[in-house]
Task: structure prediction
Amino acid sequence: MFLKMQASFSVFLVAVLSITRTVILFRPFLDISTRTVLLVVGGYGVYLVLNQVVPLVLQKTRFVYTSEEVYCWDDGTSQVWDKLDIWLDLIVLAVPVVPITISCVLSCIFVGRKGKYLSETASGGSANSKRATRTIILMTAVYILFNIPLFVNYLLWTISVNTGNVTYPDPYWNTTFTYWFVWNFTDCLFINLNSLFNPLVYFMRIKTFKEWVYERCRAVKGKISSTFVLKCR
Result:
């Protein structure tokens, strides 16, 4: 449950970051209120909590564990709730990759034409704004890299359950690898790898964050050295 909430919230934050930056690139004088963004993000967080808690309270979902899974997951107690839960997962986890990819492509095109537009609009004459835009594009590209497989997986699932009289795992997950590993890779491993790579992007692109990490490392190294010297005495 918490894994799904974390993944869904992470996807939403990337979407907000990517889309708002693209909007600012094309409409530099548009004022996007910080309060509005925080309300949207906070409201989505409340929705995620309610989406997980309410069905459990109403006993419409239950936690299950099968030999095919490596973690517990919530399953609908009826066919209707089971399909609803999967469709909600599709909407919050897989679908956002489409507008995020479009925003990333548009931002790349815009930044590529910086000689004509970026120096006067997006950057406002500031190198920091250009660097921030490129950092967001890089973060979005990393997200797309790790989440495209999940989107493809959900797309195949949507096709399979809505066409013909096939049942899971047919026709796309009936091999040993696809049956045992594909969902765990795309729905669990890749999403968490995305979260793992984000701090690395911050470290490479954000100077103040890099300086803070170096400062913390030096402080820890100093404490370890001091402790070692005191013990030797």
